[in-house]
Design goal:
Blueprint lengths: L3 H13 L2 H8 L3 H15 L4 E4 L2 E4 L1 H28 L4 E7 L1 H18 L3 E7 L2 H9 L5 E5 L13 E15 L10 E2 H5 L2 E5 L2 H13 L5 E6 L2 H9 L5 E4 L10 E4 L1 E2 L3 E8 L5 H17 L3
Parallel strand pairs: 3-4, 3-5, 7-12, 8-9
Antiparallel strand pairs: 1-2, 5-13, 6-10, 6-11, 6-13
Helix pairs in contact: 1-2, 1-3, 1-4, 2-3, 5-10
Length: 299
Amino acid sequence: MLDPRRLLVLDAVVRAGSMTAAAQELGFSPAAVSQAIAALERQAGTRLLRRHARGVRPTAAGELIAGHAAVVADRVQRAGEDLTALARAEAGTVRIGSFSSATASILPAAARALGRAHPGLRLHVADQDAEQAVESVRRGERDLVLVAALFGAASLDLTGLAVTELGEEVVRLCLPVGHRLHGPGPVALDEAAAEPWILNEDAVCAATLARIATDGSARPRVSMRTRDHASTLGLVAAGLGVALVPGLLRPRDGDGVVVRELHPCPRHPVLLLAGEEDSPTVTAVAKALTEAGRAALGR
């Protein structure tokens, strides 16, 4: 195998046209350059350079190897530039785990901020429930994860992870316009429980409804199930039931629905978790997620 360091010397000699000029470019002595070329010729088993009055020129074999040497030199230069960009958080991919309402609210705001400050960064996002997210960042499969701690932070094993609390997400009640519970102020859970419920099987809504059913006297009756928030709101607007909606989606009155607080008010912490990777790129993304998350959660 040809020594890649000697290939870099050959590349410099062929470009410069002389041993002396190549030595100046590389910061070597002319003798060191001559020795490197001689060693490379021994490895190649043939002469690579011919001397002439003004310096050296490559042989046919030298031209062949010099072409490969130029590729090596280019890749080495690119590696250095990429490493510099990575150190300045100017490039690289950061893998993020998230839950649906955070993906729809926190991530876009963070991505916009990163696009302005670090346009070379790329985000790879996967939807994960809390347990999956914790394990993926612990195993190094994700660099950062946003977690809805639906049963409190103490319910998750966060040992060895860096934890940043972003705030609390409030889960609200969505009613059709003109519903009997459509009035000022929060809606009592016991009153809402008597209604037919449309359950969005999103983790936040499903876990919150399960917690409501087990924590108190309210026993909500699920009459329909959906897999996305748009379908849920459409069914509520049609008067087919009431539903929960995550606060991070910023639900507002309109399109046939009204949004009300519940009493007691279901809420859960939102956490940003990081593993052992503390590169400048991960740090930059963590900062953007923290700022966007706290702004979205009103902290």
